[in-house]
């Protein structure tokens, strides 16, 4: 077990890349479901509710495992940081899904991809006093700029409306804050070194409890919209379950990487996630343009190539950072 844990600790970048690939596939399915390309369109509010509520199953599974093995911590900090993290993450997704449902994905993601790692850096710099050396800071910069270039488009009719920009930036800030609190939640469980994975299991259990609490808040705020909307078509149910399996698996890997190295660099891999989104979108555009269309030609193509180069430079600098 120790050898396996040491392998994961040394290869955390591989874990983050795999996790971001799975989340990228999950995000693409979410966009298709919300837009109604493969079934009835779903309002972001019920979609957010079911996203949080679906974590209840995993919560009970982890709760039983943690109590059985004696990992679960019941201290005020251990519970509080975890629940606040899960609560913030789901409510922030509500803002993000709302902006995503009213705009082209590229408009929203350009702000979101740059915002999550930027706000993570600011929160950890000012409140947790984290300081980065020259090479890690340069790697972070390359990853953020590359991520923004991956999603950036040129539009004739300008930018996002102010209301949608507030939703997007607010969602990005909330996701960053939630993942920073997840980072803290893993550390205050009382496990360190070779036993840090126990802290991850305990902290993740309380984060899932926060998911359910957030789902309850969304339900109480808009129960009529959640109950009365007819969205349970066979296609939506199938793809929702698929999306949650992919997304939950990917987010688990990402959160585990956060427990190993912290939120700053893990969140900077938003650009890698959007690179995978770009590849998936290009494949769909080629074979199923009725579902999704991605522009990959001319100046846009060269912009994407430059973005990928910057992202890989950032990863290279991280691998060789001392």
Layout: helices, strands, pairs:
Blueprint: H1 2-10, H2 12-35, H3 44-53, H4 55-69, H5 76-102, H6 105-126, H7 134-151, H8 162-187, H9 196-221, H10 223-228, H11 234-261, H12 263-267, H13 270-287, H14 298-319
Helix pairs in contact: 2-11, 2-13, 3-5, 3-9, 4-9, 5-6, 5-8, 5-9, 6-7, 6-8, 7-13, 7-14, 8-9, 9-11
Please give a structural write-up.
The protein has 322 residues and is mainly α. It is built from 14 helices and no strands. The chain has one domain (2-319). It has helices at 2-10, 12-35, 44-53, 55-69, 76-102, 105-126, 134-151, 162-187, 196-221, 223-228, 234-261, 263-267, 270-287, 298-319. The mean pLDDT is 82.
What are the main properties of this structure?
single chain; 322 residues; mainly alpha; 0% strand; globular
Q: What is the CA-CA span between the terminal residues? A: 27 Å
Structural class: mainly alpha
Largest sheet: none
> Cα-atom Rg, whole angstroms?
19 Å
Mean pLDDT across the residues is: 82
Query: What's the total count of β strands?
Result: 0
Strand content is under 5%
What is the helical fraction, as a range of percent? over 70%
Please write the string of helix (H) and strand (E) elements.
HHHHHHHHHHHHHH
